[in-house]
Amino acid sequence: MRDTPRSGDGTRPEEDPIPALRFGVNYTPRRGWFHSWHDFDPEHAREDLAQIAGLGLDHVRVFHLWPLLQPNRTLIRTAAVDQLLRLVDLAAEAGLDVMVDGVQGHLSSFDFYPEWTRSWHHRNVFTDPEAIEAQARLLSTLGHALADRPNLIGLQLGNELNNLVEHNPVTPAEVDHYLDTLLAAAREGLPPGRLVTHSAYDAAWYGDDHPFTPEASARKGDVTTVHPWVFSANCARRYGPRSFEVLHLAEYGTELAKAYADDPARPVWVQETGAPEPHIPAADAPHLARATLLNAAECADLWGVTWWCSHDVDRSLADYPELEYTLGLFDSAGRPKPIAEEFARTVAELRARSTAPRPRTTALVLDCTPATRSVSGPGGAYFEAWMRLREEGGRPAVVLAERAEDTRHLAARGIERTVRLP
């Protein structure tokens, strides 16, 4: 972990060094996708990780499967935990740090539930007290097991758990209890300096009345994670694959996340973003990767960017949505694609920079309720107004309406002027 010292009001003193941005990739095993956990092969993983490290990236995010880790509510399989530890150690050999996601949960359009949560044994994973207790026990176990790994970035509750709400109805208050309980459990075994986080897909930010809220994403855990996907709210189809809106989506998502945080200097991690076909034609993917990295790097307090994903899904595997097959930096034979080469070049360029992003002294005021959150998503009036300001050469921040007159908050963020929608 890289610590960034800050002054008491959340701003960086002028003499502080510019924090190094982190650049990595979400690891999708080339052979067998995540089903490879059923017969984990360290040599295959070593090969994949060496390819990733060869791009000059510094970390991976990894995912074991919840049914294999915890097939019974009171059973956590030691062998499965050992597999995860072995993968973390293999990443260390390749020079890569690791973020571990605990409860999977949702991956590439598939949901993975242990059988004790399904059919006759159905339990709502967000609200059933024993189901919450079991997940907390799993995260605590993983935290204790991973604690001594020096290349561990931290422990995340799971991947986009809010994808599970359709089959597990939950209220915002129940989500808060769920997240608070699991975050505390994840933190139990970890030493200071390791991150404890959670993630949600974009509905948390601009889905009207979605039970996972922007406030939960921006105020719980150690950093805010955002997953600005160009297919959300039909962004790429609405504006075009090379549109200004698409190329600046990760930057916008980062600024939107900063608006909801209580800590003006809270880091934001662009933890998933990618170039899904056919939303982004393959020929446009390198341009999208470069623009996404450069524009996101214009945001203060960016922790880093983690691309989805490392390797394409092999087409011998059935029933994935078409966009899931071609998201990798490497194809399913392990060959780097043009997007990988452009990604690596841009990362090297950003690491060579010696200046911090310029302050965003103007903020566009966001006035919405949980029921009108979509105004801040693609197609919404706020989203389009922010993009117009940005395209005209401005560098707008986002400020919530309830904070637009809070001079202390504005000063802590370096905001000198606010602008409201007409």
Tell me the distance between the termini: 43 Å
**Anisotropy-based shape:** globular
Report the CATH superfamily. Answer: Glycosidases
Please give the number of β-strands: 13
Q: What is the highest CATH level, the class?
A: Alpha Beta
**What is the annotated CATH architecture?**
Alpha-Beta Barrel
Structural class assignment? alpha/beta
Order of helices and strands: EHEHHEEEHEHEHHEHHHEHEHEHEHE
The number of helices is 14
Number of domains: 1
Biggest sheet architecture: 8 strands, parallel
Strand content: 5-15%
Poorly predicted tracts of residues: 1-15
List the strand order in the largest sheet: 7-6-3-2-1-10-9-8
The radius of gyration computed from the alpha-carbon positions, rounded to a whole number of angstroms, is 21 Å
CATH fold-level topology: TIM Barrel
| Mean pLDDT over the residues | 95
Tell me the quaternary state: single chain
Percentage of residues in helical conformation: 25-40%
Describe it for me?
By secondary structure, the protein is of the alpha/beta class. The chain has one domain (22-359): TIM Barrel. The protein is 33% helix and 13% strand. It has helices at residues 42-53, 66-69, 78-93, 129-146, 172-188, 203-206, 214-219, 235-239, 244-247, 249-260, 285-296, 338-351, 381-391, 407-412, and strands at residues 22-26, 59-63, 97-103, 106-107, 110-111, 152-158, 195-197, 224-226, 268-270, 302-308, 362-366, 397-400, 417-419. Helix 1 runs parallel beside helix 3 (78-93) and helix 10 runs parallel beside helix 11 (285-296). The radius of gyration is 21 Å and the shape is globular. It starts with 21 loop residues before the first strand and ends with a strand. InterPro entries: GH. This is Cellulase family glycosylhydrolase. Residues 1-20 are annotated as: Disordered.
